[in-house]
Design goal:
Layout lengths: L3 H6 L9 H4 L8 E3 L6 E3 H6 L15 H8 L5 E2 L18 H12 L5 E8 L2 E8 L10 H16 L4 E7 L8 H17 L6 E9 L1 H4 L8 E4 L10 H8 L10 H6 L5 E2 L2 H15 L5
Parallel strand pairs: 5-6, 6-7, 7-8, 8-9
Antiparallel strand pairs: 1-2, 3-4, 4-5
Length: about 290
Amino acid sequence: MSPIKDWFQNKNKYTEVSIDSEKRAVPDGVWCKCDACSEIIYQKELGRNLKVCPKCNYHFQMTADERLETLLDGPLQELDAHLRSADPLKFAAAKTYEESLLSAQESTGLSEAVITGIGEIEGHRLVAAIMDFRFIGGSMGSVVGERITRAVETATQQNLPLVVVTCSGGARMQEGILSLMQMAKTSAAIKRFKESRNPYISVLTHPTTGGVTASFATLADIMIAEPNALIGFAGPRVIEQTIKQKLPKGFQTSEFLLEHGMIDMVVPRKELRDTVAKLLEFLSPKEI
């Protein structure tokens, strides 16, 4: 009988398995990891769950198209889709502003960081504006401000409610003072809209910051936020560096703002459509 070491050394008795042959190629986009709890989630399951983590309830960002599909009854009658950003400052950093715009348009399929139009939520006709963070951080430049303003004016002229879903890093630095001017322009349009007595509902999603927070996002009759969304003007790190103090736990989250009376309600995404519909039913002027 052969020594056992000879048996192990006789490679012909074994079938060699290549490590590469056991690898299973997983196509991109099939799985993703939750940013909050690190759970590995099947993308189709995440989509069926309205992009909310089934384990920890973390709300992933939604695209403008996904938001429209889950919020409205049907397609949006889009307004002012022809408007395009110019480059008045000829801004250039690591890349030019024109290059940034082109890259964002190609990667998102959108022409700008907001889509506006006329649609319905459970039979209630309204004007909607939906922001998309993928487009240069959902930043507000001249076209975003102009589209929002025209949407508000359309709601005023047609005597319709207004629903705006925000998701933005703030003003668009590539347009300088022209971007900051959109804060005043959108705010003035909303002031005129409120004379119509129709409701303005703002849905604040993660993140809503900067000039968007400081203007139209927080001028609504009812302010709804998704769970654990970052909502504020300057970021927590900037504030801490400015005031030289440690901020409270959860500062600028939806729940913190609700506790301190800055917003009206925190609504999970699965309940958002029904909540907005009920508010429209309750707040819209009734014909006598």
